[in-house]
UniProtKB/TrEMBL annotation:
Organism ancestry: Bacteria, Pseudomonadati, Pseudomonadota, Gammaproteobacteria, Enterobacterales
GO molecular function, one term: acyltransferase activity, transferring groups other than amino-acyl groups
InterPro entries listed in its UniProt record: Acyl_CoA_acyltransferase, GNAT_dom
Alphabetical keyword list: Transferase
Organism: Salmonella enterica (Salmonella choleraesuis)
UniProt-listed SUPFAM superfamilies: Acyl-CoA N-acyltransferases (Nat)
Residues spanning the signal sequence: none
Domain annotation N-acetyltransferase: ranges: 1-68
A Pfam family the protein falls into: Acetyltransf_10
Superkingdom of the organism of origin: Bacteria
Name of this chain's protein: GNAT family N-acetyltransferase
């Protein structure tokens, strides 16, 4: 989310819609994402848990995170 729009909760809205769409299209598939490490708490709110150690991606610490099927 652009710096100008931070704090407007657009990231939360975007994640909620994304998870809703994934649930409709791939209801039996777990989800995986590569998150910037400092955003781990944000993704944890949506049921994602860390599944990798921290790794470097373009000079930014990242961590693989996954969400199991049928989570609220």
């Amino acid at each position: 989310v652009s710096d100008a729009w931070r704090g407007a909760k657009l990231g939360q809205q975007l994640m909620a819609k994304t998870l809703e769409s994934c649930g409709r299209h791939w209801p039996d598939k777990p989800l995986y994402l590569g998150a910037q490490a400092h955003l781990q708490p944000f993704y944890a709110r949506f049921g994602f848990i860390p599944v990798t150690d921290v790794y470097d991606e373009d000079g930014i610490p990242h961590r693989g995170m996954a969400r199991e099927v049928h989570q609220a």
